Amino acid sequence: MTLGNMARVSEALGQSTVSVHRALFRRHRRREQVELAHRLTIIGIVFLACAVVAVTTLIFEVLQGWTVGIAVGSAAALLLLTLWLLVPLSVRSRSAPPD
Predict the structure, then answer these.
(1) What is the DSSP string of the chain?
(2) Minimal CA–CA distance to 21: which of 34, 3, 6?
(3) Number of Cβ atoms within 10 Å of the Cβ of 61
(4) Could you give the angle at the alpha carbon of 33 between the alpha carbons of 97 and 35, nearest 5°?
């Protein structure tokens, strides 16, 4: 998948949560709405992370060479994995369970 397509898919998935909200809100199907929006958002975040890492790798590969591109792309992937997955999971595991 190309970089542009990854970004477009990410944006489409992120915006689709608005459509889900508009379609289900007045039907009192809040649980379905939240679950579907959550899944779409997570998938969108994965596509966004892939696009960010790919663009970062490409830019540094062109400017500094393949080795630097892979190193910086890997660092970007590690940073996003930490901030977008590990930190939220850590906070969630320390939080009280929902009512």
Answers:
(1) --HHHHHHHHHHHHHHHHHHHHHHGGGT-HHHHHHHHHHHHHHHHHHHHHHHHHHHHHHHHHHH-HHHHHHHHHHHHHHHHIIIIIHHHHHHHHSPPP-
(2) 34
(3) 16
(4) 45
Residues 36 and 42: their CA atoms lie apart, in Å, by: 10
For the stretch 46-55, what's the b/e string if a residue is b when 16 or more beta carbons lie within 10 angstroms of its beta carbon? bbbbbbbbbb
From first to last of the 99 residues of the chain, give the pLDDT tens digit: 787 888 899 999 989 888 888 888 778 788 888 899 999 999 999 999 999 999 999 999 999 999 999 999 999 999 999 999 999 999 988 877 765
CA–CA dist 85, 19 (Å, integer): 25
Indicate the domain borders of the chain. Answer: 3-91
The span from the CA of 92 to the CA of 96, in Å, is 8
